[in-house]
Amino acid sequence: MPSTTIARGNSLSTFYIAPVITPVACAGSVTATQTFNIAGFQTTDVIKVFGYVGAQTLGIIIGEADCFTAGVLSIQFGNVTAGSLTPASGAYTIQIV
After folding, report:
1. Dihedral sign, CA of 22, 25, 31, 35?
2. What is the C-alpha to C-alpha distance for residues 8 and 31, in angstroms, rounded to an integer?
3. d(CA 7, CA 3)
4. Are the C-beta atoms of 69 and 41 separated by less than 8 Å?
5. Cα atoms in the 13 Å half-sphere on the side-chain side of 72
6. Cβ distance 67 to 41 under 8 Å?
7. 85 close to 78: Cβ distance less than 8 angstroms
8. Of 43, 33, 39, 44, which Cα lies nearest the Cα of 74?
9. Along the 97 residues of the chain, how does pLDDT read in single tens digits?
10. Rounded distance, CA 70 to CA 97, Å?
């Protein structure tokens, strides 16, 4: 399909960022939503976190990501082990539509 500058559907643009974030520990066998202040996020953005740039902590999965308050990114981390784990700190690749 040829590329155009015409908006298709409800998406006008898609871009990627890689902010550095520092998550805190997640208890065993739970999912926990953590928030990070990142300027520019809007409550109308569709957000997909592709993952940590590097090796993620073994046993941590990344779930849903949202922006419920302008400038605040919410990421749900899942811990599939029995013990407490801390997701990796550093740059995360994020797609914003």
Report:
1. negative
2. 34
3. 11
4. no
5. 7
6. yes
7. no
8. 33
9. 445 566 666 667 888 999 999 999 999 999 999 999 999 999 999 999 999 999 999 999 999 999 999 999 999 999 999 999 999 999 999 999 8
10. 15
